[in-house]
Design brief:
The protein is α/β, with parallel strands linked by helices. The chain contains 11 helices and 18 strands. It has a single domain, classed as L-arginine/glycine Amidinotransferase, Chain A, CATH 3.75.10.
Length: 412
């Protein structure tokens, strides 16, 4: 059994361990009638979506090499459900997460399901019981379930009931799977009543994180995460970015991601050199629970001040406003860094790739990247932007960063 490691001190260090979910049976249970209630944009063609996701995972496998690991959340959950206490915890948390659904009457029955039946229920909502539950198509967006900061993992509090079961899944895995045993005391659980999703947290450096106050992460969630990070980790600066509370920019990483330690891909209408005014840096005060704050003109100023170095913003969609809007809609700003200056994004966002090329990135397809390194080990060096054929995946409205939960990176 591969043991997990919590080690994220930068968005762009060399990827070593990551948790993903290749779409499965739950995706075929989404209907046109209930897709909006499930927070899903479209009906995906599952076999094609799986092939695209598997190609992305193949790139990750090449990058992490024999010393790393690409974990599937389904494998971790199945292995956790081999233990009776994990199944009992899942049933108990499902009841607590759905106070209006009257699930208490089913708790004993859920406890008595076989591990495989409980696993199937967890993902699809289907079970032998007289219990109706919805599938989890958004589980493919693993980023939102938790965020590793330094040597700690912050568990999510889903903002919507449609994703509350996902929060339970990661809680059960982190709390009961044997691979996580050495890290039990480094799992951060938030207080009730706040919401937080991992797409709103970016690790800028060993002592600085950004957190979006968004449609999915409440102000109370930002403050709770900041307070706990100040208390338990090396974090000194929490840059809070206030976003419109809209689905089009539901998380900070839909409009802002790191490509290298000093380059970020941004959606200019919301985040540019003269854009977002609601940016505040929080720092721990002298007394317990006390915080000091500094208001900045924009995110660019806040970042350079906290990191003490120059940061370049690269425009999603290039310089044309219409292209910026079109490509942000298909996650043009949602790059996932697999090493410093090595990123993967959706091929359809060509204007953004053109902009990356102008910044010195060699643009290649995922297939081309794998073919070139088929017989050799990949080592980071040149700047590369990898194009992923994500025509089905992109219809779910989430890019490669949304679909990945990195838990360990290595500084090389």
């Amino acid at each position: 059994m591969s043991l997990v490691d919590f080690r994220i001190f930068s968005e762009t260090d060399h990827l070593n361990q990551v948790i993903v979910h290749t779409p499965g049976a739950e995706m075929d249970l989404v209907s046109p009638h209930d897709r909006e209630a499930l927070l899903f944009e479209d009906i995906l063609y599952l076999s094609h979506a799986r092939k695209e996701h598997e190609l992305m995972c193949a790139v990750f496998e090449k990058v992490v090499g024999p010393t790393g690991k690409v974990f599937q959340i389904t494998d971790l959950l199945r292995e956790a459900f081999d233990m009776e206490d994990a199944r009992a915890s899942f049933a108990e948390q499902i009841v607590e997460a759905s106070p209006g659904a009257n699930l208490k009457v089913f708790q004993k029955d859920l406890n008595q399901l076989s591990p495989e039946d409980l696993f199937h229920f967890a993902l699809t909502g289907e079970s032998p019981l007289a219990l109706e539950a919805k599938p989890l198509p958004n589980l493919m967006f693993m980023r939102d379930l938790a965020a590793v900061v330094g040597n700690h993992m912050v568990l999510s509090h889903a903002a919507t009931s449609a994703r509350s079961r996902e929060s339970v899944i990661i809680n059960v895995v982190a709390s009961h799977h044997p691979a996580f045993a050495a890290h039990r005391d480094r799992i951060i659980k938030l207080p009730r009543g706040v919401t937080f999703e991992g797409g709103d947290l970016l690790v800028a450096s060993h002592d600085t994180v950004l957190i979006g106050n968004s449609e999915r992460t409440s102000f109370g969630g930002v403050i709770s995460v900041a307070r706990l990070l100040f208390e338990k980790t090396e974090i000194k600066n929490v840059i809070m970015v206030n976003l419109p509370k809209e689905r089009s920019c539901m998380h900070l990483d839909t409009v802002f991601t790191f490509a290298s330690p000093d380059e970020c891909v941004v959606f200019p209408p919301l985040i540019d050199l003269h854009g977002l005014n609601n940016v505040i840096t929080l720092r721990a005060g002298n007394a317990p629970d006390e915080m000091n704050s500094t208001i900045h003109q924009n995110l660019h100023q806040a970042l350079e001040s906290a990191l003490n170095r120059s940061i370049t913003f690269v425009s999603c969609g290039g310089s044309d406003p219409l292209s910026q809007q079109r490509e942000q809609w298909t996650d043009g700003a949602n790059y996932f860094a697999i090493a410093p200056g090595v990123v993967i994004g959706y091929e359809r966002n060509q204007k953004t790739f053109d902009e990356m090329a102008r910044r010195g990135y060699r643009v290649v397809t995922a297939e081309g990247f794998l073919s070139y390194y088929q017989e050799s080990k990949w080592e980071p060096g040149e700047k590369i932007a990898i194009k992923l054929d994500g025509y089905e995946l992109s219809r779910g409205r989430g890019g490669p960063r949304c679909m990945t939960m990195p838990i360990a990176r290595t500084s090389k």
